[in-house]
Structure formats: C-alpha cells, structure tokens
C-alpha cells in the first residue's frame, strides 16, 4: 500500500535534487588516539543533526549497527531526541535492519518519532551490510532471505493502517489486529535501501516504496540500469512513481586538497578494517584518488567540486535525492561539522544554481 497523497516521497522533477546526510555514528578517536566513548559520539551526533537542520538540509539519517566501531544501535531513540532539537529536517534511519527486528515494533517506534517531530519521520528498511544482529537476537543466518521477505510483507500490512491479517513461518499469525499509534497526517514514509541487485529493486517496486541505492564503490553511472529497472517495474506494478535516491560517502572542505587530506587517513582506516573482515586486499592512495575522481563514488572536495558531482549524478541517473554519508571512520567531529555546514550553505545553493541554469 502506498500513501495516497504521495507528498512526502513524490518525485521532485528534473531541475531539483534534495540533499540529505546520513551517518552510522562512527566512533572517532580521543586526543590520545583511544576510541571515544560511545556516549560522547551520540551527544556529538545530536550537535550534527542540529547543524544539519540549521543550514537547511532536507534529511538526516542514522544507521543501525551492533558493533564497537559504530555508536547507533537504536536509531529511533536517537531520532526522538533529535526531533526535540530540530524543527524542519526529515529524520530517518539508514537503515533499520528489519530482518532482525519486529516489524510491528519498528512501525510503532517510527510512528512515535513521527508524532514527536510533527510529521518528519521516515524509515528506511534493509537487510544491512553486517550480520552481527543475527546472533545477537538469536536468529539463524540460514533464514536470511525468508526473514526479510516475510517481515517486509508484515510491515507493509501494518503500515496500511488497517486491521492486520497475516501468517508466515517466522512468527505467529495475526488475525485482524490493529497497530497503534497511527501517523497523524499520512502513511509512514518508508524507503527500501538496496545494494546492487535487480531482485532487490524489483522487491521494492512490488511494494511501491521509494528506493535508495547504496553506492559506495565503482562508478555511480553504473547504476543507471537499476534506476531504469525501478521506473519500469513501478509502472508494471501499477504504482505511482516515488523518489529515487542514492547514498555515498564523502567529505566537504574549503578546497579539494584539504578535503582529500582530511579524509584519506580515516577513509583508509575504515576501508582496511572492513576489508580485513571481508577478505578484501589492502587499499591505498590510488584506490582513494580513483574514487574521488569525477566518475568515482566518493563525494570529496570543495563545495564546487561536490556540487558538480551531485549535478552529474542527477543527470546520469535522474535521482530525486542524494544523501552524503559524512562520517567516515575516526574522522574528527570538528571536520564533520564543517562538512555539514558547507553542504548546507555552499553545496546546496550551488547545486540549485547549476540545475536551474
């Protein structure tokens, strides 16, 4: 079921793109090189959300993880706090790992954030790129596919705000029960985050939800076939077109050189830590510079450079929204605050100018 009004996630047109931010609450370093306390990272994260709101950015998302290098494990709790300290910005997850959660509780928690924020909540559902939540919550990785499929089906029925009739094999059946609280003015805006598989794109289109592509490597233009597939599938399923978005890491500073030099050691630390876990070879400056190039997936540079790259993304894929993953490994809080400031005060107006020209 899709929102009849379509307004929170309706396409924005060819001459416009919405700009948002997201973060996993990456744990930075104290002055002595030790990891920051998670509590301090969360408090800094609230400052970052406040600044994003103050400079007029469209959305702020926090991703759910269950590991020592990320501080956000309960996105909705953080978003409720952020709702009380912001006034305009949309507040969401990036992503909520639906496979290892209860779809009813996910809906209830985000509906609560929606009420507290006066209609600014959104949820982004996905399977996540890590598997720590499965053993933590007593789930079997052998059920990876069926858990997401069944829980997405149940969530969609709950979101429709009608008595829920559902049965499956991952939890007891529901026979005509209602779920509260309902969002006040609209169905809960719900996105599905996908990597790079046609199957995930088709699943999103089946439900008529807006889609966000996680583009963290390679070339963004390579996602054009998946963007076209989404448009085609939405029509075949008879759904009104919804927003398409992309998420990519990056960093904005006053000059290209400053942005690259500030980010590189922190990007490298994160890239090689995850690479060691996943069997990737070690990275180096060549890979980083390639990703920062005109066609690469990292949005790193001066406001002009990042704005030009976002406009190129808009013209290549036709997306409605771009979310910058502005936290990258132990990148310092001050550098992230400056990046957020520049995204709102310099990148956003330059992107608008370029698209209007």
Explain how this protein is built:
The structure is a single chain. The protein has 357 residues and is α/β, with parallel strands linked by helices. The chain contains 11 helices and 12 strands. It has helices spanning 38-54, 75-85, 103-116, 133-136, 144-159, 198-207, 224-236, 256-278, 285-292, 303-317, 333-356; strands at residues 18-23, 59-62, 90-93, 96-97, 121-126, 164-166, 174-177, 190-194, 211-214, 244-252, 299-301, 321-325. Strands 1-2-3-5-8-9-10-12 form an 8-stranded parallel beta barrel, surrounded by 7 helices. It has a two-stranded antiparallel sheet with strand order 6-7. Strand 2 (59-62), helix 2 (75-85) and strand 3 form a beta-alpha-beta unit. Helix 1 packs across helix 2 and helix 10 (303-317) crosses helix 11 (333-356). 46% of the residues are buried. Mean pLDDT is 95; it is low at 1-5.
Topology:
Layout: E1 18-23, H1 38-54, E2 59-62, H2 75-85, E3 90-93, E4 96-97, H3 103-116, E5 121-126, H4 133-136, H5 144-159, E6 164-166, E7 174-177, E8 190-194, H6 198-207, E9 211-214, H7 224-236, E10 244-252, H8 256-278, H9 285-292, E11 299-301, H10 303-317, E12 321-325, H11 333-356
Parallel strand pairs: 1-2, 1-12, 2-3, 3-5, 4-5, 5-8, 8-9, 9-10, 10-11, 10-12
Antiparallel strand pairs: 6-7
Helix pairs in contact: 1-2, 1-11, 2-3, 3-5, 6-7, 8-9, 10-11
